[in-house]
Amino acid sequence: MTPAPDAVEIAPSTHWIGALDPALRDFDIILKTANGTTYNAYCVRGDAGVAIIDTVKESHAAEFFTRLEQVTRYDEISTIVLNHLEPDHSGALPELMRRAPQAKLYISAKAQLMLKALVRNSELNFNIVKTGDTVDLGGRTLRFFSTPFLHWPDTQCTLVEEQNILFSGDVFGCHFCDARLFNDRVGDFRFSFEYYYQHIMRPFREHVLEALELLEPLTLKIIAPAHGPILREAPRSYLQRYRQLATPLLHNEIGADTKSLLVFYISSYGNTARMAQAVADGAETIAGVRVSLYDLQAAGDLPFVDLIEEADGLAFGSPTINGDAVKPVWDLLSSLAVIKVRDKLGAAFGSYGWSGEAINMIEDRLRGLKLRVPIKGVRAKLIPTEEELERCYDLGKQLAQHLTGNIERKTISMSELLAQEQSHA
């Protein structure tokens, strides 16, 4: 498919002047891009000035400037807006500011430090904007909406009020390159849209919902994101899809007052499995907690991450093999980077034959993910004794009590504390 050679009008006096990168297959290392991506930038002309909305990756700056020059002169540019300062959007900014030194730059408050690192100029001409601030181009009004953490702290959206065009930055975008540009003309990009949300926006689900509260009341004719197709056909359906993706579903089943505890385990000879059952049994004695038990041995691609995203507490059981927790446990823990787990409750337990390092290693990983680990994990050598199963039962009960806020206060003597430390040594 041949690249679009010229600037493309998306509405009267408003043009796409971005760049196409169809050969890209990996974005920021972690994302696959089967269809490449676009670096979308836009030009909005008013009676009193011209605004450039975002730029492109530095390696594609020549395309950007070629298209920009088709629709405006540099001395006409009065306004430059950067909705997000990541290099794929700001790469051409230094050269643009050199060519249009009279233009004022508009960014969010949290973008200042990054801007100074990007453009090493002590006399930068920039303005800080927040939700509700406007810029008048003469017959075209830019209104700003702060949407932090979608997906960097500095992100914002910009609306052309008279045309109901929302330049949304990374929100509602995706890595999908098609020279036909518009969602009603390009190939089927639904998989890219969903994939992008899951890997870029999902960790910031709470901020997605906050942004939707700002944007849903708007009358939108076009959503023009920083990557992927321009959404001119049924643009509101993409807001609706974001809300569906960001809205917790579990509370529809159990109610907002009920807490969810997930117990994951994998067991070589059934010993860690018995411990997992005891943890679950103990947790179920506390009212207001829904307990779910999952064996990771045949988990494969089961959507545990979806469950974890909405859970309040997580317990992981693993045997110690070769001085380590087993791979399925690490695979699941590593997948949690795409969701918010901060401040969830975490715990570990497991059987071992020689040294039993897995429990401490899992706990360290949970803390690294910013989970709270208030209760020391339970280890059992080989077949767990009744006393060790009782400790697992108590672990589950205490986890549930922490989740519900119904924590029993216990006084532990020094001799008991020393005995516990020796048992875990």
Describe the structure.
The protein has helices at 61-71, 87-90, 93-99, 112-118, 190-201, 205-215, 236-246, 251-254, 271-283, 304-310, 327-334, 358-368, 386-404, 414-424; strands spanning 8-11, 14-16, 19-21, 26-27, 31-32, 37-39, 42-45, 50-53, 77-81, 104-108, 126-129, 134-136, 141-146, 156-160, 165-169, 222-225, 259-265, 289-295, 313-317, 345-352, 378-381. The chain has 425 residues and is an alpha/beta fold. It has 2 domains: 8-246, Ribonuclease Z/Hydroxyacylglutathione hydrolase-like (Metallo-beta-lactamase, Chain A, 4-Layer Sandwich), CATH 3.60.15; 251-424, Rossmann fold. The chain has a 7-stranded mixed beta sheet with strand order 1-2-7-8-9-10-11, covered by helices on one side. Strands 12-13-14-15-16 form a 5-stranded mixed beta sheet. Strand 17, helix 9 (271-283) and strand 18 (289-295) form a beta-alpha-beta unit. Helix 6 (205-215) runs antiparallel to helix 7 (236-246) and helix 9 packs across helix 13 (386-404). The chain is elongated, with a radius of gyration of 27 Å.
